[in-house]
Amino acid sequence: MSAAPTHAEPAVPTVNPGRSLAVLTVGAAMTQAATMVASTASTLMFARVFGDRWGGVPPTAGVLGVAAGSIGLTWLMGRTGRRSGLIAAYAVAAVGAGAAVAGALVEPLLVVGGLFLLGVGNAGSQLARYAGAELYPASRKGFALGAVAWAGTIGAVGGPAMLAPTAAAADTAGLPPLAGAFLLALAAAVVAGLVTTGVQRSGTPVSRAGQRKQTPIRFALVSMVVAHVVMVALMVAAPLHMDHHGHGLGTVGTVISLHVLGMYALAPFNGYLTDRYGSRRVLVAGVSTVGASAIVLVGAAHLSEAWFAVTLFALGYGWSLSMVGGSALLVRDVPPAEQLRVQGGVEAWVWGAAALATFTSTQLLAVGGYPLLATVCVTLVAVTLLRRRPR
Questions:
Q1: Distance of CA 338 to CAs 8, 19, 341, 359, Å?
Q2: Residue 249: what pLDDT?
Q3: Which segments within the chain are labelled E, that is strand?
Q4: Helix 267-277 to helix 279-297 angle, to the nearest 10 degrees?
Q5: Residue 165 to residue 131: CA distance in whole angstroms
Q6: pLDDT tens, residue by residue, 328-352
Q7: What contacts 102, CB < 8 A, 6 or more positions away?
Q8: How far is C-alpha 310 from the chain's CA centre?
């Protein structure tokens, strides 16, 4: 007679976890590509219809959708399993993309709601990395987290690259050009949902009261929020800073592309570092790298284009270390029955803070330029590291 496993860590499936990990990565990549292309198109559309100052409204709605979706989806996953929650997330993203298509054709304000729902779907793609970690034993959870996080490379690079071709196709079909981007987002979300049906069912336990390691949770939460806020604030303001100093659009695009590569391309390597040296060390290294980049950017006005690009790459890489290391800490140091609730809560704080950082960064830039913004970011990192408690 067999009994259900009673050890602290969930039973690791024996049926080809690599296949499920690949499926999770594809689903996350499709959803992040949908989010990126729709966010870019919605910014352009709103700026043309309502003016430049309102161009950031749809993307901000998308970020808020990630924060809200992180809570709602983890609640759902606690009752139906991670796979069902991810499929539901991508279905919501498809509905959001459909609403954005209607916004391009009929009523522009529908795009705001559409981006919010796409954000909920994006929350699923972020939570997918935890689902990947659940497939593997503790010694390889960092690898799994990094593999799924790498999907952001495809989304960030591939999504915007399709903006021009989809606009041309929509125009040929007699539709508003930007409707093509939203139709692509719809197709990508549908593919993500269909592909994710191939993920192995999980035995994720329902969240319930239990003993938690409060200090690791608190440290991971604060560190991930600060790393994300600093990265978002400096990234959002970077194009404006470069434009004010006479850099062309080509240079701006190259710098941001390198920054995004730093964020995602080396995530599997960061997972290896987490497995090899421990999640806490990688998390501290990530926050420190973000802080060091911010220190360099205090003198951004005196940096050459090359050094500015290198620093933005380092900023993205530090963020990647922080996210992979922090996520690994949440799956290794949190009891299984608490993981969904804790992971959803941390993601909600991270993305809610990102929405605030998106708005605040340009305000600080207007008041005191990039040096003031970078100085505030350095202060946030310094306080976080100084308050770090020893293990």
A1: 11, 26, 6, 33
A2: 58
A3: none
A4: 130
A5: 34
A6: 888 887 788 788 888 888 889 998 8
A7: 110, 114
A8: 21
